[in-house]
Amino acid sequence: MVTEQFVEPKVSRRKFEREIRDYRRNEDEYRKRGWLLIKASFPRVLVVLCATKVKPPAVITGVSFDFTNYDTLPPSIRLVNPFTGDPFKSSELPTSLKRQVVGPPVEGFQLPPGIVPPGGSPPRVITQQALMQSYGPDDIPFLCVAGVREYHDHPAHSGDAWELHRASGAGRLIRLLEVIDTYGVQPISGYNVELVPRVVGFIQSVVPE
Amino acid sequence: MPDNQIDIQVIVNGQPTPIHANKNAPLHSIIGQALALTGNAGQPPENWELRDASGVLLPLDKKIESFNFPPNVKLFLNLKAGVGG
């Protein structure tokens, strides 16, 4: 992965500043949604995303952007610990950005008698796909979305070059935050609590004389 | 301004764009205008999604009037995630 700045630094810096300026312009609205811009110093940005719908509100994840060589290259993105800035391993991710994917119609599938699919169309398989991808629990996962450097660097996506997306704004700060928020934060509706009861003795209902 | 018109601020990938819209038109009618004004020609309108300031996805086929937007409401237009994997 390229980490050296080979694009004229003034160019990348100017485009970086545009990203920050566009963010700051609507910062109040983003803060109400739970987006907190913590640090912006070329080429890096740290935004913390919070779930405002749960009570009490929860800090979900930090998102670290690296705009080195932007926008000859798309930004690099990692989900990070919002307090230390360390990238989450796959096993540590607070959210994997699950997305519902509706598959093609399943032809020839026999439904039980009396059950008619909506619209009379053949049934479809609905699966969940995590947009955060990795090969193992100890790997640093990447956001598998066009507009992200790790996506375009991946050999499986060599047919979907960054140049095909660059002009559409796919790598812009706001758009990528919107994707992470949509799939990783907005669906969070409450706390998943596990209670482990422990026997500490017996209840005695009466004490005989 | 006639009663059936409304000014909307569409934030395209973070960039503000004022749009003058007909309240009787469906909401998706403002997407093409906003993309043209910001020079976003790389992706067709159906690859974009529109949200309100709370981040709620807006149904594009409903009439603009039905949302009861205040004048100069801010709406946020961003590219969809596309297909991952």
Describe the protein's architecture and organization.
The complex is a heterodimer of chains A (209) and B (85). Chain A is an alpha+beta fold and 209 residues long. Chain A is built from four helices and eight strands; from the N terminus they run H-H-E-E-E-E-E-E-E-E-H-H. The longest helix of chain A has 17 residues, at 9-25. The model of chain B has no long low-confidence stretch (mean pLDDT 90). Chain B contains one helix and four strands; from the N terminus they run E-E-H-E-E. In chain B, strand 1 (5-12) and strand 2 form a beta hairpin. Chains A and B meet through helix 1 and helix 4 of A and strand 4 of B.
Q: How is this fold's topology laid out?
A:
The complex is a heterodimer of chains A (about 210) and B (about 80).
Chain A: H1 9-25, H2 27-32, E1 35-41, E2 44-51, E3 58-66, E4 76-80, E5 98-105, E6 124-130, E7 132-133, E8 142-143, H3 149-153, H4 173-185
Chain B: E1 5-12, E2 15-22, H1 29-37, E3 48-51, E4 73-79
Parallel strand pairs in B: 1-4
Antiparallel strand pairs in B: 1-2, 3-4
Strand proportion of chain B: 25-35%
| Helix and strand composition category of chain A | alpha+beta
Low-confidence stretches of chain A: none
Widest β-sheet, arrangement of strands of chain B: 2-1-4-3
In total, the number of strands of chain B is 4
Distance between the termini of chain B: 48 Å
Please state the average pLDDT score of chain B: 90
Summarize the structure in short.
The complex is a heterodimer of chains A (209) and B (85). Chain A is α+β, with helices and mostly antiparallel strands and 209 residues long. In chain A, 20% of the residues lie in helices and 23% in strands.
Q: Tags for this entry?
A:
heterodimer; A: 209 residues; two-stranded antiparallel ribbon; 4 helices; extended; B: 85 residues; mainly beta; four-stranded mixed beta sheet
